[in-house]
Amino acid sequence: SIFSLFRVIAFANRANLINDVKNGYRLSFSAAENADNAVQAANGGSVLVNIVLLICLIIWAWRATTNLDSLGISHRWGRGWAIGGWFTPIMFCFVPYQIISDAWKKAPNQNISGSTSNFQLVDKRNNFWLIGFILWWVQIALTRLGSNQADGNIDEVITADVLGAVGGGVGIIAGILFAIAFRQMSERHS
């Protein structure tokens, strides 16, 4: 969410500067260069952070699947798919979601006294995870759409920067929802 906020600020600032140039205002070279550098840093930082978060998510999914296996609870995909599902074409659109959904639905619940001897399967969906997962894909789509328009005329560059800023805003929301969802799921697996 923090890097997405940085993306929003960087893209919005550059879109604003380009819009000023379009409207006839003079822009110093250093301001333009700083705006471009901020966008590049935001994109590079987002890529690095997303890679680290993806690795953490894969490790978490593998551990959650291992927890379910050790408790003898059946689930849709095995431990290998907790890793491989992210790297298999087409399947990465639904296997990771199903693995994490099973980790939520089938995790042992503690009863009121705090004992974990009574396991209860939860039938409801973790809406934080579902909405965060959908918004994560929306962010990726907006970023790709914006990057495809960045080589055109000045209006297309402004549109690309606006799409980058909106994608960053969606990323903020997705990050917050992911944090809430994984905190809840981790508490259930601890």
How do the strands and helices of this protein lay out in sequence?
Layout: H1 2-22, H2 29-70, H3 79-84, H4 95-105, H5 127-149, H6 154-189
Provide a compact summary of the structure:
With 190 residues, this protein is mainly alpha-helical. It is built from six helices and no strands.
Describe the protein's architecture and organization.
- The chain is an all-alpha fold.
- Helices cover 73% and strands 0% of the residues.
- It has six helices and no strands.
- Helix 1 packs antiparallel against helix 2 and helix 1 (2-22) runs antiparallel to helix 6 (154-189).
- The relative contact order is 0.15.
- The model is unreliable at 110-123 (pLDDT under 50).
Give a short account of the largest sheet.
Answer: none
- Per DSSP, what share of the residues sits in E-state strands of 2 or more residues? under 5%
Number of strands: 0
- Mean pLDDT metric: 82
